[in-house]
């Protein structure tokens, strides 16, 4: 499959701090690539280097099969981008702002403004000054601007910042639509895993400036394990019974009264019976599968829950 | 470049800074009018223009034009549009040149309007008739003032760009009008006006013309090169 965007050992060092450390990204044509990482992991710095806003300390960027430097600008005609907070000229209307973009992108067709505003549901505010728009509306307008010149590669940095739940859902739908109807390659960053999980077909996980993993979502699905999640009154007693009676060693106490069992997950009735027979009160038992979030936490070595593993 | 110029001009639509620059530059005419109305002695066309020029060059125009020129680039940082600006398929330096041309066009327009308004006011206020040679002289005066200010645009834009605000540019314009006093005494202001007058009337010595041309050209060239270098090399970070 064609690689649209590739970075080779992309690095940015600020004094002694490695903001981005030898990243090798591979975005294929038609991908919706979820670029995941906590705040400050290096996502925006990576995007800035890809777009030529920041000069890399080391490494290369290849876009549309060509190595690009900051002096090259031709490829930028084929890219739409929304980096962090979208900036606009507050003294101008929504339409006037988009007109500037249309002119600079050399788009003679005037209809593109209405089309892109319609895509993000902002056609009714066309004549309103940008200074009067809410943060969420500005975010949507930023996406409309990035789409206006019908780019082949769309780079969206935290596009749902400032949006309400309905707006977030709308953007997700839009991203899926664009990939489907316009065969656009989309790279979208987020620190919210669930946001990317529902739309991306491929993900890259960045942690402390390093790309710790890059793979297809379906491969993650294969790696992620099934487990039984139990809610018990006394997790210590339950752990004792699991080890002594059920002979289960691979379990984890994830929270007060919550245990995840990674063995014998296909025998929930048996596990439940043994626990109850030994006097453990089980209030809930469910068969689950590790999510992208679990995978993310596992490979970044960070957990939000009180891990007490005996794995 | 045409797209860039069109875009840069469009950005100034409904912008208060443009109105302030045009209105602010009328201040010298207003002060001069009050002085003429208050004076018992009749004013000549020459004294009217010299008075206007003095107010304009040593009082109003430097901070006003510096603020405007500095604002053109600084606003891209303040409005956070710099991210977008530098991801358009043009060399970064084209945007600097485009903004510089817009600043030059605006300053020239402001001076032309100012010249026309001053002529208009003088026709009503002064009893003395004006000759064609005097008309030409006043035109030359404004051309000299225009060249002076246009040559300072790269400096003001540079200051606005590295300071990411128009305030440093305003300060540089204000300092410019304050320096001649402490350095050369109040006579220094008269000397500056005298020099502009001599340049316009052709009374200036060749040496004088060469010196002022070299200074203005050096200022223009050095700050233009510095700005282009900075513009091309600077990283655009979060919160830039």
Describe it:
- The complex is a heterodimer of chains A (311) and B (240).
- By secondary structure, chain A is of the alpha+beta class.
- Chain A folds into 2 domains: 219 residues, 3-Layer(aba) Sandwich (Rossmann fold); 65 residues, Alpha-Beta Plaits (2-Layer Sandwich), CATH 3.30.70.
- In chain A, 32% of the residues lie in helices and 29% in strands.
- In chain A, helix 3 packs across helix 4.
- In chain A, 41% of the residues are buried.
- The C terminus of chain A is likely disordered.
- Chain B is mainly alpha-helical and 240 residues long.
- Chain B has one domain.
- In chain B, 81% of the residues lie in helices and 0% in strands.
- Chain B contains 11 helices and no strands.
- The longest helix of chain B is centred in the first third of the chain and has 34 residues.
- Classes of the chains: A alpha+beta (311), B mainly alpha (240).
- At the A-B interface, helix 2 of A face helix 1 and helix 5 of B.
